[in-house]
Design goal:
Length: 267
C-alpha cells in the first residue's frame, strides 16, 4: 500500500513538471513571436522614414535647382532687356546723328551753290559751274544753244543725244527767265498738233496740260509744231527748220570746286 502511494505521488509530480515545462515553452514562444513582430514594425517604420527623408532630399534638390535656373533665367532676361535698350538707344542716336549730318550736308550744299552762283556771275565759265561748258546755268537747269537750224523732230533727237530735251517751262521763275532772253524762232518741247494755232502767250500751264512724246510722232504728214518768239508761242509746219536750245537738269555743285575757286584769304 505505501509503495503504491509513493508511485502515485511521483507520477503526479512528473505530470506536474511536464505541464509546467509545456506552459513555459508556450510562453517562451509567445514572447519570442511578439518581440519579432515589434522589431519588424520598427524596421518598417525606419525604412519608411528613410524613404520619406530621401524623397524630401530629392525634392529639395530639384527645388533648389529650379530656383537656381529661374534666377539665371531672370538674370539672362534682364541682360537681354538691357542690351535691347542699349541697342535701341544707339539706333536712335545714330538716326539723330544721320539726320543732323543730312541737315548739315544740305546746308553746306546750299551755301556752296550760292557761292558758286556768285562766282558764276563774275565768270560764266568758272569751274564750279554744274553745267557743260558753253551752256547757261539758271536755278536747277542748264541751257545749251546748238549751231544751225533743224526740223522739230531733228531738234528732239539732237537734244536727246545730249541727255537733254527741247526748251520747256516748268515754273514761273523759269518762265520769267526765258522771257528775259527774248528768244526768237526756237522750237519748244510741245507735242505736234494737227490744227494750226496762230499764236498764244507763253506760260508754264501749256507745258503741264499735255504729255510730251517727241520721239513717237510720224511727221511725214502735215503736222504743226510750236516755237517761241519773244513772249509768244506760234505754230509752224514741223518740217520747217528753226533754232535749237536744249535744256537739262544741272548737276550738284561740288563743294571742293567752290573752295578751290575762292581767292586766298576769302574764308
Amino acid at each position: 500500500m505505501p509503495e503504491e502511494t509513493v508511485y502515485a505521488d511521483l507520477k503526479f509530480q512528473d505530470s506536474h513538471k511536464k505541464e509546467e515545462t509545456q506552459k513555459s515553452d508556450k510562453c517562451g514562444r509567445k514572447v519570442s513571436s511578439a518581440a519579432s513582430h515589434s522589431q519588424h514594425k520598427t524596421v518598417m517604420i525606419l525604412t519608411l522614414l528613410c524613404l520619406l527623408l530621401f524623397i524630401g532630399v530629392v525634392i529639395l534638390g530639384v527645388y533648389t535647382t529650379l530656383e537656381s535656373e529661374m534666377i539665371k533665367s531672370n538674370q539672362l532676361q534682364s541682360i537681354k532687356e538691357e542690351l535691347q535698350r542699349n541697342v535701341s538707344l544707339q539706333l536712335m542716336e545714330n538716326l539723330n546723328n544721320s539726320k543732323k549730318i543730312k541737315k548739315l550736308s544740305a546746308m553746306l550744299q546750299n551755301i556752296a551753290t550760292q557761292l558758286c552762283q556768285e562766282l558764276y556771275n563774275k565768270n560764266p565759265e568758272h569751274k564750279c559751274k554744274p553745267c557743260p561748258k558753253g551752256s547757261q546755268w539758271y536755278k536747277n537747269s542748264c541751257y545749251s544753244e546748238a549751231n544751225g537750224y533743224k526740223t522739230w523732230q531733228e531738234s528732239v533727237k539732237f537734244c536727246s543725244s545730249q541727255n537733254a530735251s527741247l526748251l520747256k517751262v516748268k515754273n514761273k521763275d523759269e518762265l520769267e527767265f526765258i522771257k528775259s532772253k527774248k528768244l526768237q524762232d526756237y522750237w519748244l518741247a510741245l507735242s505736234p498738233r494737227k490744227d494750226h494755232v496762230y499764236y498764244e502767250a507763253l506760260s508754264e500751264k501749256m507745258f503741264l496740260s499735255e504729255w510730251f512724246e517727241g520721239s513717237k510722232y510720224d511727221l511725214n504728214r502735215m503736222m504743226y509744231c510750236r516755237y517761241i518768239d519773244r513772249v509768244y508761242v506760234y505754230s509752224a509746219d514741223c518740217t520747217i527748220k528753226k533754232k535749237i536750245m536744249c535744256e537739262k537738269t544741272a548737276s550738284k555743285v561740288q563743294v571742293e570746286s567752290v573752295l578751290n575757286g575762292l581767292p586766298d584769304g576769302s574764308l
